[in-house]
């Protein structure tokens, strides 16, 4: 690299001008593009020209921007083109790079240039470690002793050196990584003492220079300390802990914890070493000793902070709190990973727990939230039963080792539990219960003061969301309740009774309701944990049982004594009674009182609300009715003696007209839950009692003829508001009845279907009268979207067919937006407007809610009915079902097609018995796939080639900006695409293809005996994919969708299409069907390779490569297409293909075969398969930057951080 052999100056100047133009945003786009193209041509040209030019451009004569870019080009050479140099050139390149370090140091270059220089030298050392490191080390030591700038540069280089170990890089071969790790580990006796020396030398020098007011020199020494700490942290994750202790690194970082300028960087070291895993070799005792020392270091710092924090006169600023948060984070890591190091020392362990309790109690949310992770992990581990696998190997030593391990675990848990006494658990519960409330929920001036606690607020950043935080608190409460039931019961009861008393004394209790609301979930978790049936209570100690019952009896008595009539208060009280459900299971004497109270609350609220805006009353009534469902679930058989009383009360309220249909449905659902605990006979009787009154109206032919006999009849129905909503409530109850009265849903498994003893569904006998009118109703709704009917609809109904604001917001990524306060979502039920009975004429929103509700519940009713199997498939008329679902498929909007596939067709495909496939699948799936293939192909073509999806949902998304409309259209397209591909994936699921053989049994390296091939018909009964492929008219659109999906930029859809394609490949391998063989060998093989060209398929590239592997290995001998396709790739030769075939025949490992195929495809396409290239870029080495600090430390951090430069910048 001699400067006397420089290339022509014109190349040098051209490259400099190109860099300047490419980086100058004042340049025209064409100029920047031309400059970038020229620079790429230089990088792709003569490597020596590139290296010489770059070395010249990093000199100080050029601007910083040009020098930085030249460093990137040098790093590119080392990383990607190093092997093109010879040994002597390697040596010259390394010497020139090392000389740059001295030059940069002498000129006191800016941080970015120093970082790039260090990164370049580190990259060279990594490439030539064995040959270069021992030779270079003395020069580094010598350079570091010359001054603070030189020491900073050496530390930077040492920081980058182990990056290939700490950051996974797929490009780095395993052997090279192992060599680097071994070499660096062997060099730790030289590296770590050097780092300690630099820390000690430059920290002392910085303090001395600061005392002499030599600020500029002090800053240089401070920068050296910071760089050295960053280097130390690069070794903290993997260097043996004993070495970090032996060579003073732990001691040095401990000392720097007392320095305001460097303590946060020192914290980073302890954060990295705290979770290190204990080795199993002879170094374990040294590890324990070092880790115990780290415990002491951090505990001393924590003790100092907690003492100062609790002192009234102590001055603690935000810097101190930030430092304490980092210390607490390391303490949590220590306790979660290495508690065994101090568990044997009772004094130390007790002090550690007290300190972690101090952080948990701290008023600062950040500290509390950090320690919450520790307490949650500790209680999970100590209060849960260990899980061990039992192997019947007959190996006595294995069993002995397992017993020994189990004994050790139990011993450790016993020690921990002995320290988790009632006082600690009581304190944890106290704080947890107080912190269940969000700050925004509190009304200013609330009478229920929570002291100085910093409650969760939306203003807090980087802490997740309140829901996740509250879930962690609730889990902690539940774990403690399971181990300390009396403590938990007393605490939660005491606090709730205190809150009730405050509310009773409050002049405006509704305003103070937030605290009461916050405690309901805590009560629910405590009660369910104690009375969940798996706990030793109440089957354990009778004294404990009695004490628990007294506590909850007192609490229940307090709740039942409340005479609240305000809707908000009634609703909260109902939730509290829900939470007591599991207690009622073991205390049945109280069930009657709770039922009476619920009816009392229901009757306290007016059932007819004249003003629709006051929906809180209606909402509260529905919630009270829903409480019967929750109580029936939790209290189980304790409710059975009261079923008649509930039924009589319901009948009385109905006779008096004080129970609306929606409320009746909820109470009816509660009855179904109760009946499920009583047995099948009781279920049958309850169902008949509930459904018989509905059937009398539902089966009447008059309303069907009036409203459903012709498409425009629905216009008349929408004008009959009361009858319209009566139909809605009937359909929704059918849905509830199916969910509550059927067996568990599951995939239909062909292997087990013939052996199953059919168990009657309680609701099966009712399907024959439930479904026919529903099919007519749904057919009428579907017809509204047909062009002929739509043109004749009144404007109000046309407007109602558009999407709601909630649906549009969801499509735009707005989340689960509530349209209004009167929208109520029930478990297992649709979302509907609760203000739809008893007033107002139908309007646009009213009709829209009704259409959506009928579609949602109607689809679910049909889908759930299919899971009953024989009563549905053998009794229903397939033509009627097909007419309802498919007749208007052409005019359906994408959102409705997706819903139809999801709610009806996927359950139908899963449940359809094999002997009914011929009747049902052909009739339903053929028109669906034919239409969806055309619609999806057209829409995706528009999106990919014109930038906008062509979606027929014009009723819903006419309003809004063009950009919003495009976003909604694309979301609708992706949703339908994923659902159709999910249907294909379901068709290919193992349970529906039990007759499909496995490749594992086909012989070595996939050579299938052609004499064993079968006709496709042979698989038609044992494989749904085989059955459908046998029907060519149905198979063609299915296969076309699976092919085209690989080119659609939606990885979820591609993943599902891959599973279907994998089953198709198996059938091609094991059958003698020529058409299928040709399709898989040519079309599917090339489509899989094209799919790998899309970056969006990076995360499922393994599945695509596996398809290529299976097709090539198993079919290339039967069809020439796979070889022809591979030979047509741009960067391949016949010898390369021959080498691939040889490599594949040498291994029977699918994993190794996939790797061979992946490497070959990358080579054959010139690294242009973006799905595979993207995988690499995800794992590319980047600069290790320190954890971002707050703005409080901005000035100090600028010394260290700078901009993102170094190895990351070349990519």
UniProtKB/TrEMBL annotation:
A molecular-function term among this protein's GO annotations: nuclear export signal receptor activity
Pfam family, one: Exportin-5
Domain Exportin-5 C-terminal: 318-1176
GO cellular component, one term: nucleus
UniProt cross-references to InterPro entries, sorted A to Z: ARM-like, ARM-type_fold, Exportin-1/Importin-b-like, Exportin-5_C, XPO1/5
GO terms, biological process: protein export from nucleus; RNA export from nucleus
Domain Exportin-1/Importin-beta-like residues, every copy: 111-269
Protein name: Protein HASTY 1
């Amino acid at each position: 690299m001699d400067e006397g052999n420089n290339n022509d100056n014109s190349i040098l100047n051209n490259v400099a001008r190109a860099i300047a133009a490419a980086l100058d945003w004042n340049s025209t786009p064409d100029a920047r593009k031309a400059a970038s193209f020229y620079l790429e041509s230089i990088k792709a040209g003569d490597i020596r020209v590139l290296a010489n030019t770059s070395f010249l451009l990093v000199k100080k004569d050029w601007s910083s921007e040009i020098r930085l870019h030249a460093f990137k080009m040098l790093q590119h050479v080392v990383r990607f083109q190093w092997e093109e140099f010879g040994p002597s050139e390697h040596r010259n390149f390394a010497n020139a790079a090392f000389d740059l370090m001295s030059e940069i140091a002498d000129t006191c270059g800016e941080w970015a240039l120093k970082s790039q220089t260090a990164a370049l030298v580190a990259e060279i050392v990594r490439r030539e470690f064995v040959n270069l490191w021992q030779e270079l080390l003395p020069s580094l030591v010598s350079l570091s002793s010359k001054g603070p700038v030189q020491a900073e540069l050496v530390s930077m280089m040492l920081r980058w050196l182990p990056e290939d170990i700490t950051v996974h890089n797929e490009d780095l071969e395993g052997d090279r990584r192992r060599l680097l790790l071994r070499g660096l580990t062997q060099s730790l006796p030289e590296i770590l003492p050097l780092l300690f020396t630099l820390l000690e030398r430059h920290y002392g020098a910085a303090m001395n220079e600061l005392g002499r007011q030599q600020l500029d020199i002090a800053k240089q020494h401070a920068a050296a300390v910071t760089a050295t700490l960053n280097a130390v942290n690069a070794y903290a994750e993997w260097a043996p802990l004993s070495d970090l202790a032996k060579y003073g690194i732990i001691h040095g970082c401990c000392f720097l914890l007392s320095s305001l300028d460097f303590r946060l960087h020192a914290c980073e070291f302890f954060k990295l070493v705290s979770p290190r895993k204990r080795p199993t070799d002879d170094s374990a005792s040294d590890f324990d000793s070092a880790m115990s020392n780290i415990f002491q270091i951090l505990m001393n710092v924590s003790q100092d902070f907690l003492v100062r924090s609790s002192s009234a006169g102590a001055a603690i600023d935000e810097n101190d709190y930030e430092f304490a948060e980092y210390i607490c984070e390391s303490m949590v890591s220590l306790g979660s990973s290495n508690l065994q190091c101090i568990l044997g020392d009772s004094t130390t362990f007790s002090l550690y727990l007290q300190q972690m309790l101090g952080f948990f109690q701290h008023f600062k949310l950040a500290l509390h939230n950090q320690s919450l992770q520790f307490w949650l992990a500790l209680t999970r581990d100590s209060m849960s039963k260990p899980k061990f696998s039992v192997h019947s190997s007959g190996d006595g030593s294995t069993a002995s080792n397992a017993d020994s391990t189990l004994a050790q675990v139990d011993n450790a848990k016993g020690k921990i539990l002995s320290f988790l006494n009632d006082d600690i658990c009581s304190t944890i519960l106290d704080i947890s219960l107080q912190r269940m409330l969000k700050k925004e929920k509190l009304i200013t001036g609330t009478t229920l003061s929570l002291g100085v606690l910093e409650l969760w607020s939306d203003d807090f950043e980087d802490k997740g969301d309140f829901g996740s935080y509250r879930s962690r608190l609730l889990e902690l409460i539940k774990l403690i309740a399971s181990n300390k039931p009396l403590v938990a019961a007393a605490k939660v009861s005491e606090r709730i009774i205190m809150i009730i008393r405050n509310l009773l004394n409050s002049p405006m209790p509704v305003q103070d309701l937030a605290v009461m609301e916050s405690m309901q979930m805590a009560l629910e978790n405590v009660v369910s944990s104690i009375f969940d049936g798996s706990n030793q209570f109440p089957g354990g100690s009778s004294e404990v049982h009695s004490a628990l019952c007294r506590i909850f009896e007192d609490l229940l008595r307090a709740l039942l004594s409340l005479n609240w009539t305000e809707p908000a208060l009634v609703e909260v009280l109902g939730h509290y009674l829900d939470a007591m459900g599991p207690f009622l299971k073991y205390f049945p004497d109280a069930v009657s009182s709770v039922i009476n109270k619920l009816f009392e609350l229901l009757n306290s609220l007016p059932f007819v609300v004249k003003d629709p805006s006051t929906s809180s009353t209606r909402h509260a009534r529905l919630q009270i009715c829903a409480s019967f469902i929750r109580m029936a679930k939790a209290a189980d058989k304790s409710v059975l003696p009261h079923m008649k009383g509930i039924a009589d009360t319901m009948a009385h309220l109905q006779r008096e007209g004080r129970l609306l249909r929606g409320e009746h449905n909820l109470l009816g659902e509660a009855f179904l839950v109760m009946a499920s605990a009583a047995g099948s006979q009781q279920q049958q009787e309850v169902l008949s009692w509930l459904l018989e009154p509905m059937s009398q109206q539902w089966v009447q032919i008059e309303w069907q003829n009036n409203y459903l006999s012709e498409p425009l009849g629905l216009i008349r129905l929408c004008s009959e508001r009361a009858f319209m909503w009566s139909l809605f409530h009937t359909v929704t109850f059918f849905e509830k009845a199916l969910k509550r009265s059927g067996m568990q849903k599951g995939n239909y498994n062909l292997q087990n279907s013939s052996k199953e003893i059919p168990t009657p569904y309680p609701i099966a006998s009712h399907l024959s009268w439930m479904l026919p009118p529903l099919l007519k109703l749904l057919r009428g709704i579907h017809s509204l979207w047909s062009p002929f009917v739509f043109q004749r609809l009144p404007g109000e109904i046309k407007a109602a067919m558009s999407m709601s604001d909630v649906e549009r917001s969801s499509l735009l990524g707005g989340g689960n937006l509530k349209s209004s306060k009167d929208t109520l979502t029930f478990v297992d039920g649709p979302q509907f407007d609760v203000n739809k009975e008893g007033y107002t004429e139908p309007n646009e929103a009213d009709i829209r809610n009704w259409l959506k509700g009928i579609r949602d519940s109607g689809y679910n009713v049909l889908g759930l009915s299919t899971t009953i199997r024989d009563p549905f498939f053998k009794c229903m008329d397939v033509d009627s079902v097909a007419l309802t679902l498919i007749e208007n498929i052409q005019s359906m909007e994408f959102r409705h097609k997706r819903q139809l596939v999801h709610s009806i067709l996927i359950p139908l495909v899963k449940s359809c018995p094999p002997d009914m496939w011929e009747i049902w699948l052909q009739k339903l799936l053929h028109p669906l796939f034919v239409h969806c293939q055309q619609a999806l192909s057209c829409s995706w073509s528009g999106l990919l080639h014109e930038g906008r999806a062509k979606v027929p949902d014009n009723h819903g998304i006419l309003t809004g900006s063009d950009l919003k409309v495009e976003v909604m259209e694309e979301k609708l397209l992706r949703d339908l695409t994923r659902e159709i591909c999910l249907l294909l994936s379901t068709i290919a699921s193992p349970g529906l293809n039990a007759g499909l053989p496995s490749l594992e049994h086909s012989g070595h390296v996939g050579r299938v005996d052609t004499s064993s091939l079968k006709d496709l018909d042979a698989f038609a009964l044992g494989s749904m994919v085989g059955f459908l492929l046998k029907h060519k008219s149905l198979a063609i659109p299915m296969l076309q969708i699976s092919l085209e999906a690989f080119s659609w930029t939606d990885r979820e859809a591609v993943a599902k299409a891959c599973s279907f394609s994998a089953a198709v490949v198996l059938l091609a391998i094991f059958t003698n069907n020529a058409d299928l063989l040709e399709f898989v060998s040519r079309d599917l093989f090339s489509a899989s390779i094209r799919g790998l060209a899309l970056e969006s398929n990076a995360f499922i590239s393994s599945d695509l490569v596996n398809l290529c592997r299976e097709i090539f290995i198993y079919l290339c001998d039967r069809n020439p297409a796979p070889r022809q396709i591979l030979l047509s790739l741009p960067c391949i030769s016949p010898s390369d293909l021959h080498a691939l075939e040889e490599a594949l025949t040498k291994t029977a490992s699918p994993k190794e075969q996939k790797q061979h195929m992946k490497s070959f495809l990358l080579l054959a396409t010139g690294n242009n398969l973006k799905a595979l290239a993207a995988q690499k870029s995800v794992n590319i080495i980047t600069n290790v930057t320190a954890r971002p600090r707050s703005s409080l430390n901005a000035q100090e951090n600028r010394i260290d951080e700078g901009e993102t430069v170094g190895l990351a910048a070349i990519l």
